[in-house]
Amino acid sequence: MSLLILNGSPRAPRSNSKRYAEAFCRYWRGTVETENLLRGDVNALCAKAGEADQVLLVFPLYADGLPTVLLSFLKDWTRSMGEKKPTVSVLINCGFYEPEQNRVAVEMVRLFCKQTGCPFGSVLAIGSGEAILDTPFRFLVRRKLRKLAGAMAHGRAVSLQCTMPISKGMFLRASTTYWTRYGQRFGRTAAELDTMEIEEGT
Amino acid sequence: MNLLLTDRPLTVSLPEGWEMVDLSQQTIAPCLGCFGCWTKTPGRCVLRDDAVAIYPRIAKSSRVLYVSAVVFGGYDVPMKTILERAIPIQKPYIRLLDGETHHVQRDVAPKDADIVAYGADTQEERDLFRRLVERNAKNMNFTAVRVHYTTMDQLDETVGEVLAQ
Ligand SMILES: Cc1cc2nc3c(=O)[nH]c(=O)nc-3n(C[C@H](O)[C@H](O)[C@H](O)COP(=O)(O)O)c2cc1C
Questions:
Q1: How far apart are CA A55 and CA A37, in angstroms?
Q2: N or C: which end of chain A has fewer CB within 10 A?
Q3: Cα dihedral A151, A156, A158, A163 in deg (nearest 10)
Q4: b/e for A47-78, b at 16 or more Cβ within 10 A?
Q5: Which residues on B lie below 8 Å from A164 (Cβ)?
């Protein structure tokens, strides 16, 4: 069973998606290849995707939908899709707490599958995806990744989700600390990050 | 200010107070996902292309009309690209809105929004697009939003009708 993992993050080489994909691979026993869509050769990528038995799309939620780089790829792939139709699964993460916020983007991939005739496989939707891997709760993600890999290996379709097991109030406080520290690395204060000002434009 | 963003050239007469940006005539790179607009130069994107003149106008507008093709139940690439590039107008900080986590807006006018969508041929695709727009409303400071489905042939007419409302 050959698997192609496609990383659809616009910052693929340094992305959370990369880390999720790597963690997934620890539980995948078959052959697997990983490619970044960012600056990839579209024709070669479409050809590769067309040869795989399964494709796992790993990407972040962007403006409630698919990031442009993934959207562009899926459009290209639709045009060049051959006879062989791989099963397409989804490993999506979003910055907000609720994994449910990923649902519309997952449905977009399902619609892509319907329009192209590819079977739709399994889903893992992660909330608080920007931060969870650097918390003790990473074990929850790993557990779900193992389930995802198991389901995909056995051709079962599952829909999984996870987030940090903390209250939303705690999440708000943790995210405030997270972004404030992020800004400090660039010499910015919390007040500067909090500015109401948007550049004027021209 | 009222802003019409379109992914195709339109032949419409703009009422007083409206500005139009034809995205097909703009050079706009995809977001890099670097979060520079939140953490390095808050309120300012590191990419210095045509998007820089557009997202401040999105922020200022109290009425927006977005005209886009629909692909896989979402916006086609040109509209999606500018919507992603507009995140400098939000703060990195998160709040609860209707019980859900969302970013705090910077100086962004609340918006009455119309979306004119073409190329969504099935009811399933239209339903999904509507769900997307309803989710966008929370992140893009829409106070009200209406979706109008049309075809590419009827685009000028539909946009004209929406502008006349
Ligand atoms: C332009 C842009 C738009 C985003 N839109 C959303 C969104 O609508 N909802 C959300 O929960 N997170 C959103 N995020 C946050 C990302 O999904 C989150 O940071 C994710 O962990 C990035 O994954 P990556 O490192 O694999 O790219 C957005 C981030 C960027 C840069």
A1: 13
A2: C
A3: 10
A4: ebbbebbbbbbbbbbbbbbbbbbbbbbbebbe
A5: none
Structural domains present in chain B:
2-164 (3.40.50.360)
Q: Which of A72, A96, A109 sits opposite B77 (nearest CB)?
A: A72
Hey, what CATH topology would domain A2-164 get?
Answer: Rossmann fold (3.40.50)
Q: How far is CA A32 from the centre of its chain?
A: 17
pLDDT tens profile A40-74: 999 999 999 999 999 999 999 999 999 999 999 99
B27 contacts in chain A (CB < 8 Å): none
A-chain CB neighbours of B39 within 8 Å are 179, 182-183, 185-186, 188, 193
Task: Scan residues 52-71 of A and list those with Cβ closer than 8 Å to B.
Answer: 60, 62-69, 71
Q: Specify the residue with its C-alpha closest to ligand 1, atom 31.
A: B33
Verdict on whether the full-model pTM lies above 0.90:
yes
Distance from CA of A2 to the nearest CA of B (A): 26
Provide the shortest C-alpha distance from residue A29 to chain B (in Å). Answer: 32
**DSSP reduced 3-state for A32:** strand
Amino acid sitting at position A121: G
Distance of residue A30 Cα from the nearest chain B Cα, in angstroms: 30
Confidence of residue A121 (pLDDT cuts 50, 70, 90): very high
Query: Where are chain A's structural domains?
Result: 2-164
The CA angle A72-B67-B10, to the nearest 5 degrees, is 110
Has the ipTM of the complex gone over 0.85?
yes
Q: Do residues A3 and A30 touch, judged by C-beta distance below 8 A?
A: yes
